Structures
1.
Amino acid sequence: MVPKKPKIAVFKFASCDGCQLSLLDAEDELLLVAGAVEIANFLEASRRVVKGPYDIGLVEGSITTPHDVERVREIRKECRVLITIGACATAGGIQALRNWKDVKEFTRIVYASPEYISTLDRSMPVGSYVHVDFELRGCPINKYQLLEVLNAFLNNRKPTIPTYSVCMECKLKGTVCVMVAGGTPCLGPATQAGCGALCPSYARGCYGCFGPMENPNTSALSRHFTELGESNLDIMLAFRGFNAYAEAFRKESDAHE
Amino acid sequence: MSKTVTIAPVTRIEGHAKITIHLDDKGTVTDARFHVNEFRGFEKFCEGRLMWEMAGITSRICGICPTSHLITSAKAGDDILAVAIPPTAEKLRRLITLAQWIQSHALSFFHLSSPDFLLGFDSDPATRNIFGLIAKDKEFARRGIRLRKFGQEIIEVLGSRRIHTPWAVAGGVREPFEVSKRDYLLAWIPEARETALLALKTLKSIHENFSTDIPNYGNFRSLFVGLVAPDGALEYYDGTIRIMDGGGNIIADKIDPHSYSDQFGEATEDWSYLKFPYYKPLGYPQGMYRVGPLARVNICDYIDTPLAEEERQIFKAMAGQAEAVNNSFYYHYARLIELLFAVEKAEALLNDPEILNPHVRSKAMINRLMGIGVSEAPRGTLFHQYWVDENGVLQKVNLIIATAQNNLAMNRTVRQLAMRYIDGNKITDGILNRIEAGIRCFDPCLSCSTHAAGQMPLHVQLFDADHRLLDEIRR
């Protein structure tokens, strides 16, 4: 008997689609992936069409409408393993910046007939509504990490995804510390690795695409920013980026508001 | 009995297309609408951020064309700094813009559209995608995947990652180019050119096979809008705005992008979150215009690379004397002409020794309190306008995105297809497929992204004159 190929489904909420495109970006692996698994369609979202069950569901995007809430609950039921991919799904994404503002004011200014916009007050991570088996970080995610996570779950093992900080990647690359040597504020010490320390390689401070690392000491980092001459506004903006609503970054940014 | 139907926005489908079709008493289509229901609120939540952050933040609008937002935002930043960026920085930004065209146009044709054409509209939707194409014609799919990869490789080589690179900045770019990187990219050119030509050859056979369908795919006159170079050549990074009517007449030319808001207004409708830009002198909705490949190849006087120019002349000849090519199906053709151009032009830039000059960034502080950036994203002209205070803190943001500018034309296309194919009170799979293909001519961001490895999620509803739901179909 030919073993059945595992079924993978991809679901999208509010996002830029960059994370699911990372799957297509794995060109060299795409032909192999196509042979190893069944990529179920990006079927949309009504009760009737979520034709599960799926072995793995990848969820991109944040939850922003009442309909999203219903939909993500349906999706959870249909997926044996649910993995969120990217900053939107794991932390609410860049659109979570609106969580600090009045969303009604948003829609009024941008749209002539705001009463037709049906939206929740806040942009929330998937994990605040349903149980998530694994959260893959990044804005966008790293395609090699995605392949590793898929591989791990398909083989019933734990994914090898580092939870240490970006600093480790700078050291591994031999990149000179932008903060110690250049006095440039850098979120690296509090941010999870995964990007390959991209910005410090450009002599620029990290801006936190991969969200908070495990147990980040954000207040010590803020103190250091202050010593470098950063204002409260600068510090607030630094933590309030692509992972603004991730708890550690949210608290730190609020402390400087 | 009233034929006007107002749609209560109850069944929101976040980020996906919804189409409603309205019939009169006799069951004839009176209207059809293409709805977009995703709201993220970028223009508003950027207020209070720093001008320097905007390239990074606005990249996140779109994972398919983040590079277009990056470059356009950096250009708005140049304007606020009031600097001329180093010539090498401009060439590098041009190169990455072409790379964006290559990867996006290749994605549109090979990954998204060709499965319809090569596997057939009526083939099983479950396999009518890039994976189905891999199963059917592995070599063709492999070449398409590699051509897109070439575009993505340029972006990765320059910007260290493919999606959301922090590489461009107000005043230039962050890192000079290197000989070894240039040579690596140059080695790709012969294969890329060959694949672009293969795509054109394949499309032409599709034109023959679908000749009875094609006349219904958004075939109507409209304005065409885009940038052209100072000498009238096809442009992608800079230049001035040209506006052509459906008869092929240039009705406005050499418009400074800084005055775009005098030319274009944005209307809103209660049934879609996507705004409806229009050409102000003609008013709304008569000022409907199209942007993107079809517009650009129509409005330019010539293309300054030999193979693409040869194709452009064949394209122009299709329209007949002094006409613009008005059929939206030929977006595909124009897109592939641009794909070939982008490969040829990238080769020319890579061979330019100045591209290796290490001076790639001009530094300055805030010198103007307002800045505009414009460029040609794969799907059309993209505008970013920022108002800042003296510290560079954003006071107001206006973004006009290509897909929105095609909104009126996409609606017109859906209406045309509905009128041609809807007969009676049922929506069949065949109708759904054709409407989907009609929308995909425009390669709108919302759909090609959600449909990246599968089919476009669609929700079509059919209403009678009393707004009773006759039929609906989702997938």
Note: Chain A has two domains: 7-154, 166-255.
2.
Amino acid sequence: MSVLIATVLGASLLGSAHCAGMCGGFVGFYTGTTPGPRRRPLLLAHLAYNGGRLGVYAALGAAAGALGAALDTTGGVLLGIQRTAAIVSGVLITLWGARSLLEVLGARVPRLGAPPGLRSLAGRGIGAVATAPPLLRALVVGLATGLLPCGWLYVFLATAAGTGSALGGAVLMAVFWAGTLPAMLTLGLGLQALAGPLRRHVPVVCAIAMIVVGLLAVAGRISAVAPGAGPATTHQRHGQH
Amino acid sequence: MASTEIAPAAPAVRAACAHCGLPVPPAAAVDGAARQFCCEGCRAVWAILHEHGLERYYALREGAAPAPAAPADRLYAELDDAAFQARTCRPEPGGRVSTELYLEGVHCGACVWLVEKLPGLVPGVAEARLDLPRSQVRVVWDPRAVPLSAIARRLGSLGYAPHPCRGLAGQAARRREDRAMLARIGLAGAVAGNVMAIAFALYGGMLDGMEPEFAAFFRWASLLLTVPSLIWGGGVFFRSAFTALRAGTLGMDLPISIGLLAGFLHGVVNTARGTGEVYFDSVTVLIFLLLSGRYLQRRQQRAAGDAAELIASLYPTSARLVEHGRVREVPLETLTPGVVVEVRAGDLVPADGVIVAGRSTVDLSLLSGESTPQSVAEGAPVHAGTLNVSSRIEVRVERTGEDTRVGRLMALVEEHARRRAPIAQLADRISGHFVAVVLGLAGATFVLWARVDPSRALDHAAALLIVTCPCALGLATPLAVSAAIGRAARAGFLIKGGDVLEKLTRPGRMWLDKTGTLTEGRAALLRWHGDEAVKPLVAAAEAHSSHPLGRAFLRALGEPAPPARVEIAETHGGGIEATVDGRRLVVGSAAFVAARAGAVPPALAAVAAELARDGLTPVLIAVDGRVTAAAGFGDPLRADAVAALARVRALGWRPGILSGDDARIAEAAGRHLGLAAPDCRGGVAPEDKLRVVLGSGREGPVVMIGDGVNDAAALAAATVGIAVAGGAEAALAAADVFLVRPGVARIAELLEGSRRAMRVVRRNLAFSLGYNVIGVTLAMTGLLNPLVAAILMPLSSLTVIASSYRARTFDRPAREAVRP
């Protein structure tokens, strides 16, 4: 489990530069002040935004983990493969990472669009609170973030599914959320400029991180239980009672 | 490399995502679209924000990359700027142009090999020569075929970012490179320290037992700490190895990179497994030591390169600028033509120019070899690098830096200094195979040990990869040679080419010009027969003559007391007729005097014949119609000639004289010097000298020593041509060595110094080969720990560096103390 947490945290930190870039506009949206050098940070609003994100991510992670558990118990028995969820998710993530890497290196790869319904839902929600107080705005935006077509997010949801348990999935997404915190909180403090020369490498780094995570999943390090003990072992224990 | 790919076209600046500012992958860019996005997520968010009129919040991203994102590749367009090229590029024959660029990331012989392949990689480039200690490449190319910016891009893609190297831009690039390296070393050191502390805990745990959670935590902690050091610090080696692979060669950093990666991955696997050894402490300490070693190596190289930068060693670093009546010190680089500088007594003249105020004497020995200071006054030209001896003068600057006489001279020397000595080329070839052999041995070690004791196989293979150091091998020769040439330059031996030192160690025939080389080069009054009383009369008459013999008379007889009346009639090639205070004087050759003053008495005629036999020029003096005295003039041998030639012979050379002077004079000189008669040839015209040199050349190495201008053909034809006089530029155009200071002893010093230099080279090569053999043996037999290997490896390169630069190959003369 520690492998899992460390890997996810690390990957999330590395890729958070893009998180800040993509979602940075929303932070400005809920703080509501005119952009300029002096902005009084609204602590509660920030907490609401990030709390909303945490809630959404954890919920999604729990759902994914439950899905994975189902795949393990049913699919595992059906197909005779242990740790199905981990393997499936690992393969998916590795493929996604390879695709990203190819894209960065200049090859033409197909882009995966997001379901349009999600986007319009997110858009309507955000538009609805455009004139609401900052706190509400922050909360809604935070929740809506889960609806955005963010490939990075999907990778980690797949990893959550691979843990094979709802709790494991939720914990994993919480760790992912923790990795994005530093970038989101320091938005607007000008610290982005420090990372300037390194921004070029963000896509490559993300791609490689995805491949690593995917391979680890396939290698069996991302199960919520100790390696080697899978659903089959759990069954054995049942059998022994 | 037979690749004919052209330099990459100016790469399109990568578009930046209109939303988040990160670069858009080129294949994903939609041609013609007004906005590009790096991913669907950004496109979606952008759409949301714009649909709802929220786009003003983009300003929040003031820290985001300024549009556009920094281009992935630099364009180097500024190098094509006409004004820049006018300042920094020099025209060459055939319509070509040459310039110098400072390259980042150059650190070893393999880089030289790679960069010098440029002509094969970029059509239009005729030549590329890299000076390793100073990381400067001299590129000769045809501007009609390829622009400089394209060449620069190609160099950049090979991994060596070019910068203009003249003056401040080069300095800035060097400082940036240094700072970046120091930052890396700092990080590597900090990480290594922390990881070692954790390793202590882990080792303690192994002895006394530690709960698995703590052990796991420590392992993970050291892994995470190692990652930045590996990526940023180790990245230097990975990039270099990768670049070399891309260019189709096995670079010297490949074994190091493999060793680092192997150690790191081994640790990662064990950390994930939760058991087994982790070597993050070795990896991080290794990175730290390797980076430090490389940094020290570069600094030493650069220090020696700067010392060998002959221009710098001959100029002062600052000048005293006269502005509106006030004087202030300015750096030398800021002088421009037209300004006036003050040169105090004892200062070096900072630039070529004309004296506008004051009069003084200057020491021109740098340029002409003449140690007697020459008087100069207003309107007289002075040259950079000469010493102002007696009083303060003000000089209007006309030419500075590399345009001065001395600057052009040194440029000539530097250009040719990059010629590679044959032994250096041998070392390069060995290095190429070296890496392949090392990788093979490492693989073999791994396989063999895997059978015996698998847990240690990786350690031993890694130790082997780490301990073998091709850098010492690749550095051994260039460093020693360039260090020796630098020292030689400061000692007054300007050597053009690294191969010269090696050639001077193989003895053969040595032909010396007589006049000026073995002799003082000017006539001196050596013997006087007859009436002493006429000496003052002769002095008075010769005071008005500009003939060399007239000057010689004056030098010997002293300045005359001013006579009442002197009338002179000089006949070219004959002599001088004068009336001094009423006395009629005829001074000249025997025929001239006999025709004007009557028959020569038999006694004096016999004296004259004897003088001629001894190789002196006889001059008869007649007063009032009677020949009363005979003087013998000769070009005296230099005081150190005999001893110096003995030293030369002791080194195995066979010296001989080739002189345009009369054969008897040449023989007489040869007798004095202890040379056999057939080796002393007089009456030799320049074409004949060339023939003799070519003839000797067929039998073995031949060295020709002579005047740079008159003996140019023979100097160029010899194996090594040494010029001792006559205008330094012309001398160096034909010869391989120019001796600034006069004296035959210099020749002996040059030969002995070359021997010492080659000894250093051989010592370095032997050391580096021996070190590698011992290291490989220890590693293969399992006696070497990767950590110990990490310490030994940089030590070996540092030893080679120290050995090259501390070796006293050429010593500076004591007179240097007077220079600032």
Note: Chain A touches chain B through 55 residues (CB under 8 Å).
3.
Amino acid sequence: MTCKTFILIAWRNVRRNGRRSFLTVLIAGMGLATLIISNSLYDGFHEKMIENAVRVFMGHIQIHSDDFHRNPTVDKYFELSDKELIEGIPYIKAFSKRVKFQALASTSTNSQAVMAIGIEAGREKDVTILERSVLEGEYLDGGDKNIHSCLVGEFLFENLRMELGEKLVLMSQSFDGSLSADAFRVSGICRTGNPDIDRSFVWIPLAAAQAMLNYGDNVSEVVLFVERSDRVDYVKNKISERVSGRELEVLSWKEIAPDIVQLIALDVAMQRILMTIISLIVAVAVMNAMLMSIHERFTEFGIMSAIGTRPGQIVGMVLWESFFLGMLGILCGIIITLLGMIYFCNHGVNLSSFSAGVSRFIGLETRILPVVKWRQVVLSSLFILASSTIISIFPALKAAHMDTIKTIRHI
Amino acid sequence: MTDDKLIRLENVSRVYNGGFKVIAVDSIDFSVERGGFCCIAGPSGSGKTSLLNLIGGIDKPTSGDIFIENENITALSRAKLSDFRLKKLGFVFQELNLIPVLTARENIEFPLMLQGWSIEKREIAVNGIMKELGLEGLADRRPAAMSGGQQQRIAVARAVVSGPSLVLADEPTANLDSANSHNLVELMKRLNSEKNITFIFATHDESVLREARQIVYLRDGKITGKT
């Protein structure tokens, strides 16, 4: 009951100086909204980066012969049946087999070193966005009659000064060391948004690549797309168990593209620094409001103390006041966040002016949309609330340990 | 020492050392009987408030002992003094007596709540004292919506609601007009006679002094006369 009365006094004190409380709440609210919106945009950027990395080429999981990822040579191949690969393993949404090799691509006038990818055209479109990235011409149809069609990256197409339908000769070393070559008609031009891929990739049917390298039914890479990104590690572990003892490496996108992981880790660190700075600003604003409030109520605390209020009760009352300010700040922050989100969800943040720099990470779509994670919202709110309440211990102690004589003399 | 002495001061001194030495209370001995109506009189700066603060346990003497109901309050810790003030004393200050965010009723109820009285007991006590002092009409008003005289009456009600042995009042009429001043003194006299609550005032108001049964005159921290 005593506590209830002090809570009542605290709440009425918050309302007592409405303008100051409003400004404090507004600062806390704006701080929280800044945190949530910036974190959501960061998360949106990260999701986009991951999606781009996964969907453009990498997939969630890749299976290779041992050491192929670090040193991709044509002698590292393997055979893995579909049944062996997916039976009994949940969450695998799609998979595709590939033969990946370095080759020299030549037209009648130009030549360039390229990365040739033999793909299962039908399955590849479920794993990556390759079909959707065809800018001009047609996607590989996967049938036998078009076994000598190929797709070429946009910049490679420009560098080789080609035309659609023109013949492109790929020359490479097969696994036994002999030279092999084959000719392909360019059926389409691809723009993935990743300049490294668009500059050097040629996609050909899997069968053509296997024939060219004398692979038989062997492949050099299997790429998988998992239903949910949080199940990647689970699926990876299941596959690793299944192929253990077979000299195969099973890698998740995090191992294949550690630069992205590091970039996200750096961003997360920046987010935490921002969170700390904003929380400190809010905490100082609340502390300032509390100090001003306490200074104005010097006599009041003296009277309370004189009639028998214990220091701990005064501390509790001041902390309740800052708690209320923090809670109102959170409410205000959520309202500002909702307004901000309405804008950002409709318009996003357009990074097109930085497209040259960011397209490698986020692809062609340079508009970033926020991704709201409730855990992040709750954490940010708690961080603001805790910092504003905890920092008020200082003014609270000051109020509780005022010299009663001095405060009474103010009368 | 006899049982009818509620308060006994023995050679009490209070010296402040804030840059230069000020002897606010100088070797004072006096006592007040239970049910007394005592005034501490003297000009400004004579040490009236300092002496009242010492009796109320808000301040501690530099030397000497203060006994209230045979308990030496100078030996009590800060927390025990808080409890002592809560249970045994009522305070009425010159002004700004009340907690501004609480209504008159809540202000009166406040010390009862601190003492842990049940809601029912509090309601009976608060209603009783408000009716007794004719304050029902002010119950839901906050201090800012009351006159100085009304605030002082609420402060008196708060001071006596829990039935303390002693009420200390530091110039309670200083900011009141003569009519309100008279009403307040009459009110305290009535509580003194009806409830046997001991009142000690610090004042230089002649109209209050006239009503006192015991007067202690102070000058420069020393007792210059007693009646």
Note: Chain B touches chain A at residues 49, 53, 56, 58-59, 78-79, 82-83, 85-87, 90-91, 93-102, 106, 110-111, 113-116, 119, 158, 170 (CB under 8 Å).
